[in-house]
Amino acid sequence: MVPMLDQAGLPIAVFDSGVGGLTVLHELLVSLPGEDYVYFGDTARLPYGDRPAEELREFAIQIADHLLAGGAKLLVVACNSASAAALDAVRSHLARRGAGVDVIGVLGPAAQTAVAASRSGRIGLLATPATVASGAYERIVSLADPHVHLESVACPGLASIIEAGFPFDEHLVSTVRRYCAPLRAAEVDTVILGCTHFPLIAPMIQRVLGRGVTLVTSGPGVARSVERALAARSLLNPRRGEGSYRFACTGDPIAFQALGTRFLQMPLGEVAPVSLQVVARAAA
Ligand code: DGL
Fold first, then answer.
1. Does the pLDDT value for residue 3 go beyond 50?
2. pTM of the full predicted structure?
3. What SS3 string covers the chain?
4. CATH number of the 4-105+220-283 domain
5. Domain covering 108-217 assigned CATH 3.40.50.1860 in the classification
6. Which of 11, 72, 109, 147 could pair with 36 as two cysteines, CB 3.0-4.6 Å apart?
7. Domain ranges within the chain, ordered by starting residue
8. Ligand 1: which atom is nearest the Cα of residue 127?
9. Cα(78) to centroid of ligand 1, in Å?
10. What pLDDT, on the 0 to 100 scale, is given for residue 201?
11. Catalytic residues
């Protein structure tokens, strides 16, 4: 058993299929600057959003084991597709192993923020096919308020276009227009960006939907949940200055570094390559 004092000094682990989770990491870096972070992008297996739930559960458990084996005091699943399919499975898996770490997903914080923000009770959801098919947002939103109408739009391919990077072109704009059309028709006043890649193109989505629509991302709510979870276990890092952050991915580390630096707008430093065999071995 690691003594409490040492455990508070461990990093917070964050993962996504790619660079999308950087939108969540950025909120954490701002809200909890004294913490250390390790970010893992499973870029070799992206996109997650077209994969079956069972496969996403397998990947998420592998990554959780891999990250905790490297030392982490809390795990953030910064991916809607993985959170929708695997959050409960990862929690029970780690509980069975006696890991004693909290696992925070992105759906609850986004859904609760949207329900609180909407005046009309008509909320839109833009998400991957896997997230929409899971029905998880419908369940969380109707638990928060059974009278809210959720208009869900699956956006196949959109996360991959964003992950492919710059330059963003007319094809991306017309894809965004197509996916936003049902939300405009449904006259929603609030839209959940239910894929962590989508906040990276928030300016484009906001222009298509208009100023009257509030865009909701999971980042700020996730940061609050992380802070509460760490405080409850007396695991907040007492450091006054800024902590460190480091990155690893299963695909091309140079491409991840180039794209991640542009999206995070902070230097990523060297990105460590991790082979899928190493990730799978951690869970064996
Ligand atoms: N960023 C992820 C999400 O929030 C998944 C994108 C993908 O790999 O399809 O769902």
1. no
2. 0.96
3. CCCHHHHHCCCEEEEECCCCCHHHHHHHHHHCCCCCEEEEECHHHCCCCCCCHHHHHHHHHHHHHHHHHCCCCEEEECCHHHHHHHHHHHHHHHHHCCCCCEEECCHHHHHHHHHHHCCCCEEEEEECHHHHHHCHHHHHHHHHCCCCEEEEEECCCHHHHHHHCCCCCHHHHHHHHHHHHHHHHCCCCEEEEECCCHHHHHHHHHHHHCCCCEEECCHHHHHHHHHHHHHHCCCCCCCCCCCCEEEEECCCHHHHHHHHHHHHCCCCCCEEECCHHHHHHHCC
4. 3.40.50.1860
5. yes
6. 11
7. 4-105+220-283, 108-217
8. 10
9. 9
10. 97
11. 79, 195
